[in-house]
Amino acid sequence: MVWVAEAARNVGARMRILFVAMAQVVHTARWIGQLRGLGWDLHLFPALDEALHADLEGVEVHEFLLPAPRGRRPRVRVKGAWPMPRGAYLARRILGALSSSWADRAHRLARVVHTVKPDIVHSMEIQHAAYLTFAARSHLPEGTFPPWLVSNWGSDIVLFGRLAAHVEKIRQVMSACDYYHCECHRDVTLGSKFGFEGEVTPVFPVTGGFEVERMRALRSPGPTSARRYIALKGYQSWAGRALVGLRAIELCADLLQDYRVFVYVASPDARLAAELMSQATGIPVEIESHERTREDILRMHGRARISIGLSISDGISTSLLEAMVMGSFPIQSNTGCGDEWIACGENGLLVPPESPEEVAAALRRALTDDTLVDRAAETNGRLTAERIDASVVRPKVMAMYENIAAQGRKTRSARHGLDTV
């Protein structure tokens, strides 16, 4: 099948999509945001009971009792929202006690699907959104569920597919869904291994396209080799390995006396370790909070000579792509899909995420080879413009939805014995 917009202009005047997604996550807001201005009818059912991300807009949210937003309120329509400024928590408790169907998110999602009648249900992420969607299907008559698109985020299959508690659930989702979107060719293969037999959509980032030129305007002038900052992603968690990065920086302290280190989106362990490392080495460290805006993070990459991101599992790390756009030399763990973007030793370096010595060796190379980092910035500038600019990705996203909806309507017409010509 050719996934081009021109192939599906017979879809109709207005697309209706129901997203099932984690509503607090910026990836959700950015993905939906790229569909602004199309005149489509967009709906969101939150996969978790959580506040909405402030950047969400242009979508109708189906959640009766939304938690209070953090900071700026999102620009969304809310279907059946709690009308009072207070009392949502108590109402949630009372309703949950009185009605098991209200407390059952799958049951509520099934009702939304029945009411909205979307052309497409899009589950964005597997462990929460797709599991929930699979459960909701059981509450609807067989053959009535709309075309189902599932997006694989990060470690959805590559890591969770190795855990006993998730293997069968992933297999159920992949066997049941009709369309599959992922950002790594690696995950296309994994989807097939877990029983997917439908159609694979084009491979591109689950965050959607990037406004590459607008991002580049935030870069510091001059060559990358002239920059004197190191950026380190500060996640220390079940997957993140910020402490390994901090140890590697400490091992290179002799080369870093003229540098400053940014530790961004830092977890508590990383904040503590970064402060202690700075005291021990004399390297100035700036620890950025989770409240910093995306523009702040982009400016940081735009001032950095090197950006380090380490985790034991990932897809295409968004921070990797942002570093590439902003001209920072990426040192990235070799446990994600970085090899689909990075030719190791040319436009970045791929390293084991749990070896501070090997990360330090890569850091030393990037600190001492000006030609390497400057050429990498040129290469990565071309790559990102060609592969992830919004002008490239947005038409693919539109065509993806249009083709799915067109096929769904043909299937429904055939099921009811109608003429599809």
Report what the structure shows:
This protein has 421 residues and is α/β, with parallel strands linked by helices. It has 2 domains: 5-208 and 390-415, Glycogen Phosphorylase B (Rossmann fold), CATH 3.40.50.2000; 212-387, Rossmann fold (3-Layer(aba) Sandwich). 41% of the residues lie in helices and 15% in strands. The chain contains 15 helices and 14 strands. The chain has helices at 26-33, 88-98, 100-103, 105-116, 126-137, 164-176, 185-193, 212-216, 242-251, 268-281, 294-303, 318-325, 356-368, 370-387, 390-415, and strands spanning 16-21, 41-46, 57-62, 75-79, 120-124, 148-151, 179-181, 199-200, 229-233, 260-264, 285-287, 306-309, 329-333, 349-351. The strands form 2 sheets. It has an 8-stranded parallel sheet with strand order 4-3-2-1-5-6-7-8. It has a 6-stranded parallel sheet with strand order 11-10-9-12-13-14, with helices on both faces. Strand 10, helix 10 (268-281) and strand 11 form a beta-alpha-beta unit. Helix 4 (105-116) crosses helix 5, helix 5 (126-137) packs across helix 6 and helix 9 crosses helix 13. The longest helix is centred in the last third of the chain and has 26 residues, at 390-415. It is elongated. The chain starts with 15 loop residues before the first strand and ends in a 6-residue tail after the last helix. Mean pLDDT is 89; it is low at 1-12.
